[in-house]
Amino acid sequence: MSAILTMIGQRLALGLLTLWVVTMIIFLAVELLPGDFAQALLGQSATDETVNAIRQNLGLDKPAVERYFIWLGDVLQGDFGRSLASERQISELVGPRVYNTLFLAAYAACIAVPIALTLGILAALYRNSAYDRGVNVGALAAISSPEFFAAYILVYFFAVQNAWFPSIARLNETTTFTDRLYMLFLPAVTLTLVTMAHMMRMTRAAIINLMASPYIEMARLKGIPRGRIIVRHALPNALSPIINVVAINLAYLIVGVVVVEVVFAYPGLGQLFVDSVVKRDMPVVQASALVFAVTYILMNLSADILSILSNPRLLHPR
Amino acid sequence: MTFKELQRLYATKRINRRDFLAGAAAIGALGAASTVGLPFPAMAAPSKGGHMRIGMGTGSTSDTLDPATFDTTFNQVLGYGTLRNSLTEVTPDGQLGPELAESWEASPDAKVWTFKLREGVEFHSGKTMTAADVIASINHHRGENSQSAAKPLLAAIEDIKADGDYTVVVTLSAGNADFPFYMTDYHLAILPSDGEGNVDATSGDGTGPYKLEAFEPGVSAMTSRFENYFKGDDRQHLDSFEMLVLTDTAARTNAMTTGEIDYMERADLKTVHLLKNRPGVEVLEVTGTQHYTMPMLTDVDPFSSNDTRLALKYAIDREDLLAKVLRGYGAVGNDHPIATANRYHADIEQRAYDPDKAKFHAKKAGLENVEINLSAADAAFAGAVDAAVLFKEHAAAAGINVNVVREPNDGYWSDVWMKKPFCMCYWGGRPTEDQMFTTAYAEGVPWNDTNWSNERFNNLLTEARALLDEARRAEIYAEMQQIVRDDGGTIVPLFASYVDAHTDGLAHDTVGANYALDGFKIAERWWKA
Amino acid sequence: MSKATQNTWKLLRTAPPTAWFGLIMVSIYIVVALLAPIFAPYGETEVVDVAGLSIGDNPSFLLGTDHIGRDVLSRIIYGARNTVGLAFITTVLTFAIGAVMGLLAAVLGGWFDQILSRIVDVLMSIPPLIFALLILTIIGTSVINMILVIAILDSTRVFRLARAVGMNIVVMDYVEVARLRGEGLWWIIRHEVLPNISAPLAAEFGLRFCFVFLFVASLSFLGLGLQPPTADWGSMVREMATLITFGLPTPLFPAAAVALLTVSVNFVVDWFLHKTSGLKS
Questions:
Q1: Model confidence at B43, in pLDDT bands (50, 70, 90)?
Q2: Which of A197, B29, B465, C89 is close enough to B3 for a disulfide, judged by CB 3.0 to 4.6 Å?
Q3: Lowest mean pLDDT, pick from B239-243, B394-398, C177-181
Q4: Where does B417-507 have alpha helices with state H?
């Protein structure tokens, strides 16, 4: 057991190290953005005078290294600072957005993961049948259309032609959980379409790969039915790659939803990020990029750990 | 003329109500005019109550309620037209009218302006509005550290002081006949002060028709009827007014067709003809002062030669641009920035597409074998790149070689505009001639985006500013429009209308053209039919 | 017939119909992309007629005209050149960087491997779309910048694959023998390692290739991809998106062009994967 703990410990340490380097990259990248907040805020109406006034007010004239360490120290204490534009606390600004994004991602995952796994297992079971081919082509077509296109098509059929679902996700404090599920159905389905294919194909491939191994051959020779072989013998050993691809897709659901957020006017973290880049609202860009990176690293980390834990050979060392 | 056309002319303020009724009578549609009822309150009184949802094409997470930094129509409508008022307002038919100031008068040299404030006006917080609030609100944009875009507008103020609780006296360093007009600027909303000269610019408190319930920058805002509004029942017909940010055009169009919003800002011109055909949807076109320009730096060769400028002005097919870029929703420009909606718009011969004249001037300027780079990005205006590509084709017919340089959207205003010698640009326009000319055409001002200077023009500008004599001013402004048209450094190919859409469940009177969305005051002027 | 062509022919004869379909479609795309000016009835940015013609309004414009009166069919054909060309160059570059670095890491090992692997870990921990948005905003969105940024970000995945597969080969006896014989680094990579890992790399190529389209389309959607008036399928869908609300089919064509190519490429890739897994067992 301790071998596993050491391994997990190693991964955690490595994750933290990566995170630290990422904070530097994010800070550097944001520093390098051309133009600055003062210019972007005023747009066409910027004059040297007003730009300088804003710049001084915000203390943008200190050296970058100094500001990096101040920023890092504050972030470690949970203080992300204030938005340059709205002067609101960033934690206040980012918090609800993170919740919205996670909610949508979780919702989409709840639809996509079970369907993808079932379809994938079935495709492996009926390998090379008409069903297998059909699912495959469907999946490829689904991933190959740009997200916004899939979203517009869904809206056309399920909101414009038939008024079954709303075309925009209008949330407020009074929105109940069920209302939320209803409003977010189309965005969630869009994300499902985009991510499902990858997971399904990987599940199928992982299982088929195992079907050639001697122990499965043995089980087959013993006369165990095909379905049972797959579920009882192949699946547990195929879990590790499947968990990996699920984790990658969950991470994608969280960070790749910018486009879907724009189409459905859903107030998630992605839109906040894009808006802030355009406005050069550096503290917000840094905070949201950091949240994205943390999510990504956490997802990969948990995938690593889960695949260690799900590996029968590691769990039962000889 | 059909009744529908007449209705449109009326709705878009090209004719007034009397002309409309006369026209209706002339085509025998007076009955129709009174039964349609929709946009004509004189015939059917506005009904009260209801909730209105409006989908906005702009709005960002960086929006605030501080008028000093207003830059999207979202916070202009919310923070200026809905939550607050200003001293004076531009009435729907384009005249200057009272708002928080009841009356005003000027000294004969137009240097000292005295505003008499309305008494008993309440803020949402219950505080009564006095001269102290007005002075603090105006000073919010002045001073060393001001971040306000309205700062240049108020630069001429030498002194501003109260004379009792309800009189404000402003002294200017030079006479300005338009000063009361300046007070309608959307930055100059009146905010509550703390009595020590500081204003509360961020809570959303104001004297306006609706008070703020919830505001999520870049997402939405919810307001509800303010019971003690000083305009009372004349305006302010709805129970509540909600604004949503829907920056994606397709998303906005979808929400409009599915009835999730009642009003859509910025209809997509590519599909507006299809939107119009949908039952229950009406398209609203208002021609305001917004115009597209193509500034050339007149101190850079070859644009320093007026022949180059004229050649390019003749080489552009405005009608084609109007049809293709604006789908006909606008008007052709005449190379000066004064719109028909402005008070002193002069009737000057329209410059037409004339490849021969263009060729003549191009030859004089020695433009054969010269490649003229035109910088463009859609940040300048939606369709700017398309317009530049079309211009390239027009100019080619006159033997002028234009090369369209695509610039990034991001940073367009800081890196391209006023830096590259020839680019695409837009102006929201200004309600007064003086403001427009002073902002972008006077010698040496920060936004003179052509570095143009013309002595006669500059003298006339100063002369007209202090004049209170209307007829003489009209004459001077006409001459100035002619000068800009024939010598200025900018091509003004198009005036772009505001094109919005709404359900037929909404009704309105004459629509103001000084700003988009009924002069930003849609919340208090429209009602549910 | 030479031996190589004979082998190729043999391989093709055993290919399933899906692979055939894929191969034919991909070839058609390549031909159209290369010969766009011959196939396209009008120029890429040429304004030919009134704007907004729908399908069938005028027989000269099969698929109608766009919002400023350019022929949609011509723009789709030129779009093949821009979109496929861009994706192809980017993917080749991705593989050049990723595979070379990955193989070097596998063969050299030690600190070289450690440093590269850590750099890749860090690059991979920042979401690619977010990273690309930031970087492109910094350096500007020219076509060359876009190709470089996508190629570098994407090469991290190829690096991992190449390194992992390479590791398995490097420990083989025949590589050890070559080393003892005193062969140079490049000789070992070229003669011993590359031939043994080309199949999984080729399979990955197909997937990465499609990924680039979608990535460019997403960037265009957010206003940072290829800028107008250059025709590319992603931005064409984007420009015409509001037509979908009114049930008009025009935006379907560029979208279908992307989808068809993706499906075709993946058919070929699947066949490749199948072949390689078949060879293994």
A1: very low
A2: B29
A3: C177-181
A4: 433-440, 455-465, 470-487
Return the pLDDT at C54. 65
Among C97, C98, C269, C99, smallest CA distance to C190 is for: C99
Among B147, B247, B250, the residue with its CB nearest the CB of A53 is B147
Residue B295 pLDDT greater than 90, yes or no: yes
As a whole number, mean pLDDT of residues C172-192 equals 80
C146–chain B nearest CA distance, Å: 13
> What would the pLDDT profile of A224-239 be if each residue is shown by its tens digit?
887 788 778 777 777 7
Radius of gyration of chain C (CA): 22
A279 touches chain B (CB under 8 A): yes
Query: What domains, with CATH codes, occur in chain B?
Result: 3-33 (no CATH), 51-60+208-285+498-528 (3.40.190.10), 84-182 (3.90.76.10), 291-496 (3.10.105.10)
The answer, yes or no, to whether residue B477 has pLDDT greater than 90, is yes
Partner chains of A (3+ C-beta pairs under 8 Å)? B, C
Distance of alpha carbon B461 from alpha carbon B469, whole angstroms:
14
Please indicate, yes or no, if residue A52 is contained in any of the structural domains.
yes
Question: Are B433 and B336 a contacting pair, CB within 8 Å?
Answer: no
The residue segments making up the domain with residue A302 are 90-315
Q: How far apart are the first and last CA of chain A?
A: 11
The CATH code of the domain that includes C196 is 1.10.3720.10
233-292 in A: which are within 8 Å (CB) of C? 251, 255-256, 258-259, 262, 273-274, 277, 285, 289, 292
The model's pTM is 0.79
Could you give the CA distance from residue B494 to residue B483 in angstroms, rounded to a whole number?
18
Cα of C131 to nearest chain A Cα, Å: 9
| One domain, residues A74 and A178 | no
From the CA atom positions of chain B, what is the Rg in Å?
23
Contacts of A143 in chain C (CB under 8 A): 210, 214, 262
> Mean pLDDT, chain C, as a whole number?
77
Q: Give dist(CA B252, CA A239) in Å, integer.
A: 43
Whether residue C137 and residue A26 make contact (CB cut-off 8 A), yes or no, is: no
Proportion of chain B above pLDDT 90, given as a percent = 47
Chain A window 75-134: which residues touch B at a Cβ cutoff of 8 Å? 83-87, 93
- Same domain? For A122 and A200 the reply is yes
Write down how long chain B is. 529
A159 and A38 inside one domain: no
C36 is a domain residue: no
In chain A, the number of structural domains is 2
Cα–Cα distance measured from residue B305 to residue A108, given in angstroms and rounded to the nearest whole number: 62
Of B99, B88, B92, B95, give the one whose Cα is nearest residue B40: B92
Model confidence band, residue B33 (pLDDT cutoffs 50, 70, 90): very low
Contact A57 B446 (CB under 8 A): no
CB B524 within 8 A of CB B504: no
Other C-beta atoms within 10 Å of A220: how many? 14
Mean pLDDT (whole number) for B294-299 = 94
- Per CB-CB distance under 8 Å, the chain B contacts of A269 are none
